[in-house]
Structure formats: structure tokens, C-alpha cells
User: Fold these one by one.
Assistant:
Number 1:
Amino acid sequence: MSPAGREVTITIDGREVPAIEGEILHDAARKGDVEIPYFCYEPKLGEPVGACRMCLVEIEGIPKLQTSCSTPVREGMVVHTRTEQVKEAQNAVVEFLLVNHPLDCPVCDKGGECPLQDISYGWGPGKSRVIDEKRHFEKPIELSPLVAIDRERCILCYRCVRFSQEVSEDAQLQLIDRGDRTYVGTFDDRPYVAPFHGNITDICPVGALTSYTYRFRARPWDIEHAGSVCTICPSQCNVSFTVRDEKVKRVISRDNHEVDDGWLCDRGRYGFEMFDAPERVRGPRLKGGEASWEQAMEAVAAGLRGAGGKVAAIVGDASNEEGFLLQRLLRDALGSPHIDSRPSRGASREALVSLAQPNVSARVHDIDEADAILVLGTDPLHSSPILDLRVRKAIRRNGAKLVVATERPTALDGGAEAIARYVPGMAAHFLGELARAIGGAENVATPVAESLRDVERVVVLWGERILRDYPIAAAGLLGLARELKVGEAEGAGLLEVPETTNARGLREAGCLPDAGPGLAETRAGMSTEEIRQALIDGEVTHLVLFGADPLRDFPDTPAWEEALTACDFLVSFSMHENATTAKADVVLPLETHAEKDGTVTHPDGRLQRVRPSASRPGFVQSNIVVLSELAKALGLDTGINSQPTAFKALTDAVSFYNGIEETDIGGRGVRWQDINAPQASTGTPSERFAEEELSSPEALANPRPFDEVPSEEGVPVLALGTYRDLWAGPITELNPPLKFLTPHQRLEISPQDAQRLDLKNGEAVRVSQNGSAVTAAVLIKERISPGTVFMAEGVAEANANALLNGGLVQVKIEKLSEARA
């Protein structure tokens, strides 16, 4: 017998086809350009089940027909896919499936792109011998507020159930009843509400599962498909926009194993309806009302020209090219180094350079083969949803060990071998202790360290939020990487989960106060928080916001309110009207990711192309052209007038992007580390840097014990941790189909602290800190550590950002009735 994984040769329909021993016959046939029909088979769902019997083939030496989706390849195998025996079996399967199928093709949304239609014509008998009454169900049934199910059309392929049970692991969908009465449903007919459930409409091979947002809106012959990238969150999933009349009508997945495994979260799938929301900024606006582009550009240029260097910029939702142009505008046209792309504090340039080294960086698909995965300071379900599915897949298929170390309980805790909780604001201390424990320091041993010690390939998913607490936490990450020996094992490394979609790309494009393009040294400027204080103090008087909404998304809302009020001249590039644009002197529209042309950089360093798929509404113009024209009005001719020229300027300026062409990026993207790793070698991770930072008094400060609950004037004070809920923000609120998911503020608290404070679930409380207060409903959770509470950032009302104005944030909690009294 040949060793597993060895290349073998098989014969299919008289043709020799190369294959890998042990791979599925159906996959080998597909690579050999042999088409075998199927319904239930879907490699993304894991091991095949052979349920539909459509892929039957004849294999010499085996008396009965075999399912090609569940038969492994072996050397010398001879396969026949078009014999009379196979044709008869395939005809019988199709005829059987159509016995009760309602033949809704003229009105079914799947009509024209339906595998059952195609297979019926290609491999079916063309007619049915059955004339009896078909079975009937109520139709359609609301499976969820977003998905309808027509049970009459269902062929029981199990795909949707397997997705629910084995991929998203929400376990809500199941097969109910038996025999000819079997149907897909949920327990007690409860709505199927889960973050990824829209994927079942993609994998359904018939029209049984359809989306309410697309139902009856278009047909396959009057639409176009446009491949692009979703920039709603850092996952940067590859998508295909369904476009009709220059409008996006649907978003479906576009398989890219290196990025998303072919799945989408519901936020990215259904978030497109915000493109045409009434709040959309459709043209330039001055304080006095709408304006032409000429008037707006003249007003911006005149306002910024008089800043005298007291101008700053904060970049949020932007492509690499837009970020590069904006930092040139600030540094070269206005002579100001004050630009940042982070909502709050962050690591120094030296730390970022060390963290970006190829030898400590992991790729997304490294998670699949990792021996252990450490989720550190982030909950992927909320911060980068597709990584949640990736981690679950690694545990389920390859037996990877999962270790979770966070402030707040995560959706992955149930599959973790070891869990650690640290006090909000104490990430740096925790990292230092963990590194020492893994390194074998005396009297330092934890279950997390024991689970990670002596493991060959460890992938660390770390949240950028930990750098908010103390930027020196970056030193702890480097120390941890050193102890885990990630540079010595292929497939091991650190993988950042940023706070914003294109955080890595904007950093590498030069949108940092202490680093230019390519993380090169430059004249130091102010960070986001320093810009805020400088606005209040009058040291900065002019501000440009590009895709950023400080009043919604940045910590310390009251301070930002004061800063924007004190600002002499505020320019806001925004996609939608919000509280920040209401304060702006000039508002300029932004393109959505369905209208934009440019590139973004995935957290693992993969450059991906965002392509224009739909028309821009109103008077929206290309952001690249607008920034270039604005620079020219300020006396700087960038030589950029389009996306290709902007991309060329970017790759020339960023050393490790040098030589990358748009053809290299293509439809799947390219990691710059795979092309230009030598140009990025600014040195191995700085051990001296890590050691110096970790030995500082601030890093070694003792955290407050969880069981110590101090009080202030008789009111207990607890440590506040915050998180960004997946559904918090305008994307949910501006999408009618998603509004039911809009979160309300809750105070997550441990049972011990709830008992101490005499609080009950649902009770209204007032949470205050340093004169700022918000109201919330109590939610008692068993896994919250005593001494800490958690609230959500970015919600429409009672935003927890109003309370964040320091490192270790402590809050007072009072019952609302007592607070009012």
C-alpha cells in the first residue's frame, strides 16, 4: 500500500487522472475535469455523509455502485461515471426527488441558478411516472426574520442542518420526524437567530431556503455578479455582490480558503441595505446647507490653509490608498505630523515593527493546522466573526487545543481546555506573568501556561484592544512569542484581531503619529487621545475626520464632545449622517465598499482588492480623486488621479510593498510577506525592547484582586470592562432587516456582586465614573468574574464609551430608583 498523501494515478472514463491517495474520489474527478452530479456533498461542511446518492459511480472490482463523495482514492482505481447502470441509478434518484417537489421554477428565486434544475435536465429521465398528489406544507414559513423556508422544495440533503450542527455549532436546526414526514426545523418552532445563519441560503442546493432581503427582487438573467471584499469588519471576507440596475441586491460568499473558508457572517451578508439608507450623505455640505464640490473643496482648502500647522487627522474606514493620500496631505501639504488611525492609544513604532516581522506572524489558514490556539484579549465572534468559525473547525477536525485568556467570557469558552481571566486594564501584567510561567519561572504556574508549554505550533489570536490598556502590552506579546518559540515552527505565530477593518493597512500606509509609510521613522506627532486633549487645550485647532465617528466609537465621549466643540474647523468625510457630522463645518461623502476602488490589508498581511460593483448615489465622488484634488488645492501635486496611480505611489513608498502589482493581488489577494519578506526584515523581534518594557514599574504593578470590592461613599466600586457587540453600530440600525438585532445596554455582572448589591436581572441601574453616567439593565452571568462588570461600546443609547477615560476604569453602580432619590 502506498503511503498516505502520495500521488497516485486513477482512471476515470478511460482517462488517466492524477490524484492524492486518500482524497475523495469526487474531488479527484473534479480536478480531472470530470463532472459527477451531487446534492449533499459540500467539502466546507466536513466529512461527507453520502445522503443524496446522486453521485453514484461504478468502480471496477466493487460489485455495487459507490458514492463518489465518500470513497477515498487508491492507486490504480478504475472508475466509470456514464455506464448504463450509473445512468439508471442517477435517473432513479432524480425521479425520486421530483416525486414530491412542487416544481415552482417559474416563481422560485433559485430558478436559473438551481443545481436541482441543472441536474434534472442533465442526469434526470426528463419525465415522471408518478401522477399522485404531491405532499404539501404551509409555504413559505418564517424560519427566521431573515430567512424563509419552503418545505415542499426541500430534498433533505442535510446541508443546512450540518452547517448548524457542525460548522457554526449553534445546534438550532435539526431534522424533525421520520420517513416521508421528515422536515427541517427548530425546536418548538423557535426562530433560527444566529450570527452566521444566512449561510444556509448559499449552500441550499434547491430553493427551499431563501433570503427575505432578496426574495422576488431579481432573476439570474437580469443580474450581474461582482467580486469584491467586505470591509465591515477586520475579517475582510471575500464576497460577490449581486447587482441589478447598478444597485446591490444581494451579498453572497466568494470562496477564499486563505481568508474566510467560503462563509460570511450575517452582518456582512445583510449589511448592504445601509448603502441606500435615508441617512446616507449623498453630496458635499457646508454649515449653511448643501454645496457643490467646487464650493466644498474651496472651503476645505481655505480652512486648512490657515491652520498654521495646528491641524490633525484621524482615519477610520479607509482603503490603503486613501490612508496614504491623507497622510501625505497632512505631512507634505500642511506640514503636520498629527495623524492616527487608532480609536485610542496604541503601541510604539518599534513595537509595531517587531510585531510585524514575518517570523512571528501567522496566517489565517495556520489556525487549521495549529496544535494549540490561544485566544488572547478578544472574542472573535464579535471582533472578527469568521475567525470564530475557523477556530471551531480546527478543534473539531484536527483536535487543536484551545486556550482562552480574556477579560470577559467568550463564545469559545465551551471548547477551551484552559481559561484565564484578567482584570480589565491589566493585560500587560497578565502577559508578563504568562510569559514567565511558560518559560518555567519558579512559583509561577497556571493551567493556561501548562496547556501551552512544549506545544510545537501555537497560533495566538490577540486583540488590538489589549494595547488600549497599556501600549507596553506589545512587549508582553513579544515576550510571549519568544517563550512559545513561534519563530522556530512553521505555521506558528501571532495573528492580530484589530479594532477597525483596515487597521494594519492604514498603519503600513503611514497613518500613525510616529511612523510613515512602511512603518518608517518620521517626525513624531500626536496620537488620537493626544489630539483630543490638544483640541481642548487649543494646541490643535483644525481636524479632519475620515470615516471616523469619535462621538460613537472612541473612548471618553464627554471629552470628545468638548474637543469637537472647541475645534475651530472640522472636516468630516462620512458615509452617513451622525452626531459628529452635525458638528462639522464641511461634510464630504464617502463611498461604500460596494462603490470603492482600492486595496485593503488583511490582519495577516494579505493585500486584497476592493472593486467598484455598484454606482455611487447622488453626488458622491471617488475618495481618491477628492483627496488628490484637495492636496493639489493646498499646493501639493501628488501625481495621483486614479486608483492605479494611487496604488503605484503606495507600493513605491512602502518598502515591503515594493514590486507588488495589481495582477499579483488578483481575486484572492497576496501576502506581502510571501513576496517581499526580506524587505520587511528590520530585525528580529527585539528582545531588549520586550525585556526593558516588561521590567518597568508600570508593567509589574499588581492587579486588583477580583474579590476586593472597594467602596466610594458607601457605593461599591467595580472594574469596568467593555466590548464591541457584533450588532452595535449604524450598520445594524440603518438596515431595516437587521434592526431587530440592535443591542440595548446591559450591565453584565457576576452573581456574587449582584447579590452584594441586591440587583436582579432586568433591573435598571445607573453606572457612573468621574461625573459621567449611563443607565443599563442588569444581566447576571455566571462566568463573569467577581469584582468586574462589562458593558457594550457603540450602542445607540447609554454608550459605554462615555465612561472610558483611563486605564483601569472603576465605576459606581446604583439602582436607578436610589440614584434618582
Number 2:
Amino acid sequence: MSLHLNKRAILKNTAHVGGLTLLSRILGIIREGLLVRFFGIGAISDAFIMSFRIPNFFRHVFAEGALSASFVPVFVKTVKENKREEASGLMSISFLFFEGIVLLMCLFVFLKTELVIKFIAPGFSPEQIGYAIPFLQVLFPFLLLVSSIALFSGALQSVNQFFIPAFGTPLWNMIYILTLVICLSYNLSPLALCFGIIFGAFIQLLMLLFFYFKNHFSFGKIDAISIAAFKSVLSKFLPGLLGVSIVELNLLVSGIVASFLPKGSISLLYYGSRFMNIPLGMFAVALSSILLPHFSRVVLFAPKRLNFYILEVTKLVTWVIIPATLFLMFVSENLFKTLLGTKADALQIKQAKWILILYLLGLIFLCLNKILLSVFYALKDTWSTSIAAIICASVNLGCDIVGMYYWGAYGIAAANTISGITMTALCFLFLHTRHEFRFYAGNYFKFLGRYCAQLFLGCALFLVAFLFLLNYLASGAWHNFFMFGIGYWIIVTLLGLSLMGLMFVTKRLFSVELYFLNK
């Protein structure tokens, strides 16, 4: 099996993973809608969201973040040298070490649950703390499962098996949704939902284990060679705990600050960040997952080639994410009217809309950060990302406090955007100063000018078509269906897809050159 990926393979795998991520995000929207109906927006929803945010934070930082980013390059190098036994030994020692740490964390959280809740939500009332304690005790072992999932996913990605790891999240979402439907139908306790979440992760882990063994991996003998490889993983993991997951760190810090706001504010910030994460996860996370093992190979054979790849990835992210950002801004109010329904009043819907818009202003930078962090980890440089993360976390905290004081939840959403922009600037700075990276700014801004002209035409046609169709179809008996019902979403979805299709077919007309989309 060839382990090399050309641009077609990169794009193809990104499309596959992105497609599954899109499916997961669609299921996620359904899930969030059911969550609103199950919890409402208030003290209990805030308690559930903060309780689940803790294992999810460690999942992104510890498991899918620093663990994957440090483990995959070393595993790729071992597999590339046709040393499956050594790779299996590396898996054994990594599994025992990291799962041992997570077990200790689970024990601490179980024994000191109230202390943990008070730390991550210092503004919670006694009522909210009472809700949160049993939630956290059931949900925190989720981290034990997803950290194992991260290891096995990394092993499969090292041999270019991306589909199965990507399918795991939609599978988990399906089980999550099924549990929510059962809880709503039979009026079950929220704890039943928590157990359903754990069960879904367990099924996902079993699936990955099956394909791990099917690809001729195993739990090998731990010897001096595997220990040396593990030391290499550990040397990248420890300083990378902060750098690789700055978005999640900022969201956790923002949640801590938001716990002092009126009840329901945490829920509104959560739902705003979830929709911002749709294009982030569907495109940027998928692309960075594909590119991490590819960048790791490029570093081994042609490190200067990274300059070209970073330019082209930056162009691709710009070309894809700006239309997605504008689209989500355009539909933001109707999005929350549909999601929150009667569980929220008009003021809360307006708040959620502007929170999402403020998050979206930083979306392109958050997407670029995902790619740039993959570059750093391929270069085995975790110190740069850690320094950048510490600076950005400090910026985020300061902006959170000032923003909350003057603008409430809006200030917290804006702080996340400011931090994301800061992270992008620092990543480019460190690539230039520490790795002699050269960004071809002239090429990028030439592309950007042509792209803006293309985008202006596409958006103008989108608005004209939208207003025409809405005025034509929303008259008479069909008014409510096309103005407030599913008909509205049919129109905007078809027009949004048509806009992306138009952008693709008019690339040559505007001389917009994209390496990954060229034949």
C-alpha cells in the first residue's frame, strides 16, 4: 500500500472526511434542537453544557489535540519504515500510559466533583451546582473512551485510512439522537441521556478496534525501540497540550467567565459556537487531519515544499470559508428561530444571532490555525505553538473579562475572535522566525483581489435569486411555509449550493488559481 498522498488524494480524502463531518454536523443540528426541547434554556441546560464541556475540553486538548498531533507523526515514521511490530509496540505503551493518566483524572473528578464544578463555573448558583454534579460524574469517563479512539484513529490515518475514523462521529451522534428521542418520549431523567452518550462512544471504540486489527496492527511487545519512539511522542505531547487546542481552551475560559452572566447565557454562547464549528469541523478539521500525516512525510523529504503548501492551503481556506461565513451570517436569525422555537423569546433569539455573527468574524482565522498547527507538529515544533497559545489564552481572558463587563455575552464571543486572529499572526511569525518560512504575500493578495470580484458577483446573484424566489413562492397559502418553515431552508440551501457551484465554474473566468482544485 502506498503511503504517499498527491493533491487529488488529499482533496478526495478531505471530501470524504468533510462529507462525513457534514453528516455529523447535520446530525448535530438535530441533536441540539432536541437538546433545547429536552432541557430548555436556563439553569439545568447551563449545568449540562458545562458538565459535558469538561470531558470535551480534555478530549480536544488531550486526546484529539496534543495526543493525536504528537502520536501521528511518530507512528507515520515507524510505519513508513515497514516496522509494524515496532508501531504496535508504540501503540501498547502509548495506550497504557495515556489511559492510565485518564483513569487517575476520572478518579479525581469522581471524588472531587463539586470542587471541579466550582472551579470551571465559579458563578454557578447552588441550584446549578446540584444539577451539574451527577452530570459530570457520569460524563467524565467519556474522556477515557475518546482518548482510546484518538489513538486508534491516528493509527488508521497513518496508513491513509480516513473514512472509518471520520464515520465514528456520525455514528456517535446517531446514538446520541436516539437516546434523546427515547428520553423525550418516555420523560426519562437527564442522567439517562448521559449514559447514552457514554454508550455511543463505546460503540465507536469497538468499531475502531475492529479496523485497527484488520489493518494488521496489534498490541505489540514493549521493548527499547518502542520506548524510544514513545519518548519522542512524549517530548512533543507535553509542550503541545496548550498549543494544539487554543479554540477549546478559549471556549472553556469563556464558559468560566460566562458563569457570572444571567442564566441561559452559557447555553446561548454554546449554541452560537456550535454553528460556527460546522464549517470549521467540516472543512478545516477534516483537511488538517488529512494534511498532518502528509506534512509529516513532506518534512522528511522536501521541507521547503511546505512554503508552497501553506500558501495554497491558505488560498483554499479563504475560497471556501468566506462564502460559508457570509451564508451563516445571512441565515443566523432564522437559524435560531428554527432551533430554539418556543423555548426562547425574541430577545434570546436576537442575542444568539449576534453571538454567532461575532464568532463567525474569526472563523477564517480559526480554520487557518488548524492547518498551521498541523505544520508545526509535522515540524516537531511544539514549543512555538505553546508560547502562542499562552499569549492567546491571556488575550482571550483579558478580552473576556472586559467584554463581559461592557457587553455581556457579546463581549465573550468577540474575545474568541480576537484571540483567533492573534493566534494566526503568531503562527505565521514563528514559522518565519524559527523555520525560515516565507509566505508569498504578493501571490496571495493577487489571488484575493480576483477572488473578491468573483465573490461579489456570486453574492449579488444569490441575493437577487433569493428575493425573487421568496417573493414569488411566499405569496398566498404558501407564505408561512416559505417564510418560516422548511421551505425557507430548501430555498437558502439550494441557493447556497448553487453559489458554491458558480464559484467553482467561474474560477478561470476570474483567473482564480487554486492548486488543490486544478486538474
Number 3:
Amino acid sequence: MHAKDNIASRIGRWSAAHRKTAILGWLVFVVAVFGLMANGVLKKETLSSVDQIAGNAGEAERILDDAGMRPTEEIVLIESKSETVDDPGFAAVLDESAAALTATAHVTAVASPLDGNGGGISEDRHSAFVEFEIEGKEKVGEENLEASIATVDRVKHDNPEYTVGQFGGGSANKAIEDTLQADVGKAGMLSLPITLLILMIALGALVAASVPFTLALTSVLATMAMVTIPSHLFPLGGNVDALILLIGLAVGVDYSLFYMRRQREERSAGRSNRDAIEVAARTSGHAVMISGLTVAIAMAGMFITGDATFTSFAVATVTVVAVSMFVTLAVLPAVLSWLGDRVDKGRVPFTRRRGEAKESRVWGSIVTRVMRRPIVSIVVAGGFLVALAIPALGMNVVQSGPNDLPRDIPVMQTYDRFTAAFPEETNAVNVVVESDNVRGGAAGAAIDDLVTEAAASPKVIGESEITYSDDATVASVQIPTVGEGTDEQSMAALDEIRDEIVPATVGGVEDTTVKVTGGAAQSSDFSDLLSSRMPLVFAFVLGLAFLLMLITFRSIVIPLKAIVLNLLSVGAAYGVLVLVFQEGWGEALLGFESNGGVTNWLPLFLFVILFGLSMDYHVFILSRVREAYDRGMSTEDAVRKGIAGSAGTVTSAAIVMVMVFSVFATLSFIDFKEMGIGLAVAILIDATIIRGVLLPATMKLLGDWNWYLPKWLQWLPQKGREPRSDEGFEVEPGGVEPARA
């Protein structure tokens, strides 16, 4: 073992010495796990709709699901501008639809309004719907849905003079999932060539650019297969593949880029290829490991929410970061050792040759001016970010609803027509009552009282509908209310039913369980869950990140300052989200219609993702600063050299991240647009204002206090001084060792 070894150095030495094993082993692994997934051997367990519902509403949905009262319900909507249900032609289409569905595989409980046993007719009688169910619980029901869709399409084709469409939980989920997958494919088709182009410019050669690009892409593919294993314990949400692509491409390219730039700098300074890899492993490799651990810690904070969707996000992001970190440390050195100077083949014209260690003139000039007037710089830059963050104080978190989904999806067009014709079917509060006998006795009488009290409320707009389980132990009372599901009217109706009507009726019956669900209830309970868990997530992420950076840099000031600066960039990103999506400043440009707020899951998600990714730059830059300081430079000179010397790499990495995230702002779903804009803005701020202005300005003001470590923490391990680029190396079997100065 070498005197100045760290874990990253030992991994890098092994990889360079066993390059065939490292490279072929990784490729075989990727092909194997991805092949097993493609062939169905590794199957991904996905979240059911019940799993994704939190709190009291989630408990209500589980009671209904266990009682077999949550079938896959669908409707066929038939409309005519000229005819009504009373006309023979319209009635014939209704009869044809019901008969065709009755004869369709996996379709049950067909009910037509003409038979008087279900369905509905609008007040103007120009619209009517036939309702039916799909056999099997949710996942099986979704698989059995295809036959009914084909039947409805035939009815639509045979009756072109009528508007015919299908809508329901199953068909909507299928259509949304198909659109989501198309969006993910679009994101990949846009982000991959953009990433490769940026890397070609940053690294100056096609072969060099293909190395981080290929490693990041294989990391993403491997992760998509690997997460199928933990999915049997933690089922995954339907959009985790998009998240894996988003985060995996960003961090995978970043880590490889930082590692390669350091190796190329050392090679350009005259070291042998093996020696250059050794230095890169010991310095940038160590920074990659610390950065990866910090990012993983931040993203693991989502486990604390206790929400199944956030848990699936945590599994996906922690896995892809861990895989990207492993590939950078254990596979990249082998690739660089194998390629040698061939990595510079396919040189891009007008770019710098082989990573010469030149400081950025632009950033060097900016940092010099900032450090001359640190107080002015802090006031101006900090004031700008605080001004951007101020709108976040008025952030209104909302639950994305049907109205926020792309309207070019046919099933959503049917939904719009359905809600316009049947407003009483749009929004309902569902009171679930579980008791020994819900048809009679105290529970049955209380349910009758519930219906009576609800009918007297001005917030209830129709008759309540009661459904009983086969064994009469569960009753579902559907109370139609004003509102569209998640707006203020809906929430006011929910509060009245939950807080006043239910306690006064079914809530007072002994040995009876009462839960409330519905769109408004689910949104309210999810928001309450996040509000209660967010302080715990913040404490976990900030606390562990502080400890990790404290140990890494042996300073109590560095981690505190990094946390403050990162929170400032997150706050500014929140403010931009409010201005763009809540106030609607970007509607025309981004192609959306504001729903008056920011989607409720995004603030916590953005915090953990942005905090982790922002730490990337701090770890890499401060590692270079600390390296220069340990060589004997003053803090001011070390800061100037560390920032200006790493500017090209950091800027390239930031551009990759910003471009990848910006691609998601072009997708159909408003949630993706918000996520893409929030991530892109925060990374842009972090790579420019934070890194170029506030970091050097605060370090200049603090001077040697940047490295302050209380006496009672002096026991922390101390890293050895890193070698200068002009110091000699003594080559030993299996590796290199820097000569003592």
C-alpha cells in the first residue's frame, strides 16, 4: 500500500492494471442485466394507484381495495349536437355500445341509461354514457383493457356522425403512460446528441468525448435493469426511467469529465499515462467519491417522507448515482489506460489540445475582480439571489390534476366533454365506513344521517350514492361536491364533510372505522404528509452533508458556507418556479397554462436533488483549492487558482446538466416542465453566481478562517499534501508513488 493512498486511488490502480477485466466485466454485466430485464427474467414491480395515496385517504383506498370495491371502471360517452337520447338514432348507438361491450372479453357490469340500471343522461339530453367494468384488480384490469378499447373504436368508426369516446381510470392511466414513454423517448433523443456535442467541444476530440458519454449511457441502462431487484421491496413509480435518465446522464458525465480532465492535465504536464491516471484517481477520483456519497445522502432523504412515490424516487436516484460513481472509479481508469494517447483521436478543430492545464482567462478575470471587492460582490450577487428567492415565500403548492394533463390525448378530450356534460360526476368526497354491519344497526342509521346532512350542505351538488361490499362490512358513500377536485371549492367541501358532517354522524359510532378519500382528500393528505416530513428531510440531508464535508476538508467553516450557498441557489430556483409556473410568466414560451401554483411534490424533490448536485461543484472546486492551499499557497491564491483552473471543466459539466434538464422543459407534462426548469436554473446559478462570485468573495473575506477546525475535532484524519504537477514520481511495481519534497 502506498503512503498517500486513498480508496479511490487503490481502485484506480487496480482498474488500470487489470483493464481487460474491468472493461469487459462491466460490458458483460450491462448486457446481462439489461438482457435479463428485456427478456422478462428481471421484472419491475410498479406502484399501484392505492400505493401512491398517502394518509387517511390512502387508508380508505386500501379498505375499498381489500373489499373488492375498487374495480377498473370505464365509461363510453356518446354525444350529438343535433340529436338527443330520445331520437331513435342516438338510442340505437347507445344500445349498440352496450351490446358490443357485453360481448367483449373481460368486460362486466355493463349498464346503459336506457335500461335504467346505470350510466347517465345529461340535462340537455345531447350526451349519455354507458358504464362498465374490466375484470381483475388494477394491474390485471389494465392488461384486460385492450379489448374494450378496440370495441369502442369500432363503435366510433361505425357511427361517424356521433362523438364516441372511452374514459376511465384504466384507459386514462394507459394513455398517460404511453404519452409519458413517448416523452421519455423524446428527451433521450434530444439530450443524448446534445450531450455528445458538448463533450466533443469540452474535451476536444471525438474519442475523448465518447468515453464519458458511453460510460454514462451504460450506467443508465444498467440502473434501469438493476432497480428491478429492489422494486420487489419498494415498488417503483411509472416515471422512474425518466428520472434515471435525467440524473444518470448528468452525474455520469460530470464525474467522468472531472476525472478525465485531471488525467489529461497531468499527461500534458509530462507524466506517463499510468502516472497521470494515478494522480487523477487520488485527487479527482477521491472528489468523485465524496461528491457521489453527498449526492446519494441527499437523495436518500426521500426515504424519510414515508411516501411510496418518493421512496421509489430514492431507490432510482441513489442507485444511478452509486452506479455512476462506481463506473467512474473502477472502469474509467481501465478505459484511459487502454486508450492511452489514442483518446485524443478525432480532434475537433479550434479546440485546445489534450487538456492543457491553463486557467480560464474569463473566470480568472472575474474571480480577481470579485476578490478585490468581496463585500460589494457579496451584496450585489447575494442581493440578486435573495430577490429571486423572495417570490418563493408566496409559493402555492397544488396537486396536478386532470386539467394539467396534455389535451392532445384523446382520452383527456373525452374527459373534458364528460365533465362539461356531467358536472356532478366530476368531483366527489368518498366516505368509507367499515363495521360489522353497514347495512343496518347503528352504522347503517349513521350512514343515512350522513347522506341527509350532506344533502343539506350548499357545497354538495347532487345525490349521494352508497355502495356496499358483498359481506356488508364496508360502505362507500360518494358525495358529489362543488369544485374540480383540487381547487379551493373542493377543499372547502372536503373540510366541511371531514370536520363537521362525518364527526356528527358515522364518526360517532363505536367499533366503526371511518376514512375519507377522493381527489381533494388525496391532495390534502399528501400535502400534510410532506409538511410534516419536510423538516426531517432537511435535517437529515443537511446534517449528513455537513459531517461528510467536515471530515473531507477538516474545516467547520467550509461545510457551513457550502450549505448556506447551496440553500441560496435552491431558494432562487424556487422563486423562478413561482414566477414562471404560478404567475404564468413563461406560458407562451413553454407551452402550458398555469394552474396557479407549483406541483406539491416538487419543492421537496428539488431540494434533495439540487442540494446533492450543487455539492458536486463545491466538492470539486474546493478539493482543488484545498490541494493548492496544502502546497503552501495563501488562501487567496489557492481560491483564485482552484476556481480559474477548474473553470473550463466545471463550465462544461454545468452546460451538460443545464442542457439535459432543459430538454425536460419541452415535454408535454407540466410536472416535467417544472422539474426541468427548476433543475436547470439552480445548476446555472450554482455554476455562475455561486461559484464565480459568492464562493471566492466569502473565502477572501474569511481568509485562513476558511480552514478553521476546533481543537476538539483535531482527531479527524488529515489528508496528505497532494503533489504539484512538477514534482517527480518514483515508479513502483503496480503503481506510482510521489517522491517526498
